[in-house]
Amino acid sequence: MKDKRASDGFSAVWVALILLFLLGAAALAVDASGFWQQARVQQNASDFACLAGVRHAPSDPPAAVNKAAEYLRANMSALSALPADPDSGAASSGVNVYTMSDFTIQIETPWDDGNAATRNDALMRVSILQTTPSTFGRVIGIDDVDILQEAY
Questions:
Q1: Average pLDDT of 66-86?
Q2: 98: buried, middle or exposed (CB in 10 Å: 19+, 13-18, 0-12)?
Q3: For residue 152, which of 114, 131, 122 has the smallest C-alpha distance?
Q4: What is the pLDDT averaged over residues 51-60?
Q5: CA of 71: how far to CAs of 26, 60, 82, 121, in Å?
Q6: Which H, E and C letters describe the chain, residue by residue?
């Protein structure tokens, strides 16, 4: 027969370990769902901006960039203070870069994938990169996550 004193408390230790694992999994699920939600918001904003600007892309690329930036300001509250002009020196290459705290936005028209045969002046690309802080992931060393969404 087993000695009862040798197994006293074993269940409590086992339950504590399982509870720790479940709480950790729940915390990471909260972080992951927050990242997913932010990615969805960014994708919607980049889609709207690209659709708004591409109408002007073939005839007036600067107007296309301005319209895309206007739609980013209107459709993503975190970008409401997006500067009117891109960062200096960026517009000369056709890539307009805007930087704000945690965001880097690129609006490119005409969009060029590096292949001269597929270059099309009627195309545009809008990308939003955000460094999003982690809530619970910091416990395991994930301080922040870069979320990149693009629309073509």
A1: 84
A2: buried
A3: 122
A4: 86
A5: 36, 17, 11, 21
A6: CCCHHHHCCHHHHHHHHHHHHHHHHHHHHHHHHHHHHHHHHHHHHHHHHHHHHHCCCCCCHHHHHHHHHHHHHHHCHHHCCCCCCCCCCCHHHCEEEEEECCEEEEEECCCCCCCHHHCCCCCCEEEEEEEEECCCHHHHCCCEEEEEEEEC
The yes-or-no verdict on residue 36 having pLDDT over 90 is: yes
Integer Cα distance of 72 and 79 in angstroms: 7
Q: In this structure, what token pair is assigned to residue 99?
A: 């930087």
In the sheet that holds 144-151, the strands lie side by side as: 95-100, 103-108, 125-133, 144-151
Residue 115 has pLDDT above 90, yes or no: no
Classify residue 82 as left (phi > 0), alpha (psi -120 to 50) or beta: beta
Cα-to-chain-centroid distance, residue 151: 12
Q: Can you tell me the distance from the alpha carbon of 25 to that of 32, in angstroms, rounded to the nearest whole number?
A: 10
| For residue 66, pLDDT beyond 60 | yes
Distance CA 129, CA 104 (A): 5
